[in-house]
């Protein structure tokens, strides 16, 4: 090997090492060249895009009107059938979907085809005080000018119409919350002393011997299936869950010691959050779970809420057995069933419970 002691480390035949030489500063490549869209070059394409945006906003208006047809035009009374409910739910769902989708897609299409799409790089400025309010107003005015909303009355008017109508379904729904609730509606159900517990939906009576440890029954009051009017309303209030535990695991509060029978307890199936059906039972933990918002109730502690947004325990139905061994109710629920609401205390007071 030759002698390399006289070679310069900066010559081309040597390996460069870190720190040698001057590193060239990275150059800002700048913004990419702007590519005009079809609507920027062709007036007919511009008009076509404008009409498309207006049509999408019009679809939103139609969706809102469809919602109102389902909400107001379809009566819900004692004679309401499942098919009627399904039709109303279809109209309500499709109405809300088209209402929101029309506005959202319309605004996106407007921005992508008609609003200016030049890329702009601005230096970040320090936060300033009211002396720059005039500049802020100027920027807002510039945004309005660039959006074209001032010079595109078709888009502007359809957007205003769609936006104004889109909030009306919420107002229509909230108006129902202002109605005074009759204590008889939620304060009383078909349960009363001696009414047998039957399987849902068959309506066959249940004996205490039929309920094994860990089993869960979906239960309705006897005679519900024979109703000719108001069956759905009564079922929505009366349906309960029947569970059997080891009596030693139950912890009844004073006055409720005889509300269960040999470890068999019955609780309302209607969640006290927003009224979803509580249908999931964890046998090892003795927990009931609402699938809508994960409210969890502990059966061993009188269905006390241990997790989730529910505010109060599930109402308990007092039960016992008759002379034939069938499970029967001792009485109706001792409190209104269903979701918690601001008039619940009034219902309890007026129902005398």
Automatic annotation (TrEMBL):
PROSITE patterns, sorted: RIESKE (PS51296)
Membrane topology: Multi-pass membrane protein
Domain (Rieske) ranges: 264-328
Keywords of this entry: 2Fe-2S, Cell membrane, Disulfide bond, Electron transport, Iron, Iron-sulfur, Membrane, Metal-binding, Oxidoreductase, Respiratory chain, Transmembrane, Transmembrane helix, Transport
Principal localisation: membrane
Entry annotated with the keyword Membrane: yes
UniProt subcellular location: Cell membrane
Top-level taxon of the source organism: Bacteria
Residue ranges with Polar residues bias: 8-20
Transmembrane segments: 53-74, 90-111, 154-174
UniProt keyword Transmembrane, yes or no: yes
Family membership noted in the UniProt record: Belongs to the Rieske iron-sulfur protein family.
Protein's job: Iron-sulfur subunit of the cytochrome bc1 complex, an essential component of the respiratory electron transport chain required for ATP synthesis. The bc1 complex catalyzes the oxidation of menaquinol and the reduction of cytochrome c in the respiratory chain. The bc1 complex operates through a Q-cycle mechanism that couples electron transfer to generation of the proton gradient that drives ATP synthesis.
Name of the protein in its database record: Cytochrome bc1 complex Rieske iron-sulfur subunit
